Amino acid sequence: MSAAAPAVNDGALLVVPLRGVGDVRTGDDLAALLVAACARAGVPPRDDDVLVVSSKVLAKALGLWHDDREAAVLAESRGVVAERRTPGGTTRIVRSAAGPVMAAAGVDASNTGPEADGRVLVLPRDPDAQAARLRARVADVSGARPAVLLTDTSGRPWRVGQTDFALGCAGLLPTDDLRGGLDADGVELHVTVRAVADELASAAELVKGKADGVPAALVRGAGHLVRAEDGPGAAGLVRFDEADWFATGTVESVRSALGCPPGTPGVEPALAVVDRARPDVPGVLARAVAVVAAGLAAAPLAAGPPVLRDGGVEVPTDPSVPSDPAARSARSAPDPAHAALAAAQVAERVAVACRAEGLGTRVLLVPGAVRVEPVTVGPARVDATDVDARHS
């Protein structure tokens, strides 16, 4: 027996969890299952409703399974934004094939059901198109054509915790552009664009939960955002190119400037969590050497490669051991002054790579080399890079 839906007053939203969908498997008619769940909840879909559906349950119905998680992450990634080492392995924040920037490209191994059998689910490559197909099928089954909003879960820069967001949508305005209008004080708005699709996704997540087996919700009261046409979808919510001020993480931006972009073979990611009481000085130095060596392999200098030595890093100033293979094979040795200058350049690159991971350093001139030494004061790392000279 279905429950009666409460009335929705002007300006109010009704968000109803759609229970009893069951364990969705490959090939199931997801639209029919959702329409039946709406009926049981007492909210048969209407044209002005928004049907909010977890992308995971859609992926199950579509059979988007992959046998190997790591291979799936690589296959569903279009570029690495940041990567860090954790106790469980390497975590990558990537621009996913589905569009948004997400951890592990949205590849999911949780709440996947008995069909998983050790496999993982991947996101649909074109979530807006999938939302439009689901919307059309819901209309076939129910006779109504509500908007469809596909959601997924993601963390957020600068904020703790995860929230649901709009992965794809059809029949829904993804944003409410208030630019050119006036605020309550009569001041013109210049930048305010409300991400209403993301807001509806988060509202629906509050009633769906994460471990309750509720994959969808129906939102009533947002009819002013619903359109007969499928519309632009959620793809426009993703920032690209010059609109993306944070295209790579801090460490990755520095490493890229040093000629070592994310994913360079042989270079370990930085640590996800830094213990400032016991800083990983040897690890930071080793990673800095690897970063700089990778950059020198692509653009050599007339200086020896950086090497770990006695708790620091040294770059030889001996012109007989330049990093440039062409210089090594030349009949005449490079000019000593040129080699010393190149060694100083390499040492400064090491210092910059260390600083990207929060380790302060000082650069010293020692016999036969330019040396980079870590600088710590008490249990914490120094926040500045000191440049000094020492002769002996």
UniProtKB/TrEMBL annotation:
Domain Coenzyme F420:L-glutamate ligase-like, residue spans: 23-63, 72-221
GO molecular function terms attached to this record: ligase activity
Annotated Low complexity bias: 318-334
Record's keyword terms, sorted: Ligase
Keyword hit for Ligase: yes
Top-rank taxon, per record: Bacteria
InterPro entries: F420-0_gamma-glut_ligase-dom (IPR002847)
Positions of the UniProt region annotated as Disordered: 310-334
UniProt-listed Gene3D superfamilies: CofE-like (3.30.1330.100)
Name of the featured protein: Coenzyme F420-0:L-glutamate ligase
Organism the protein comes from: Aquipuribacter hungaricus
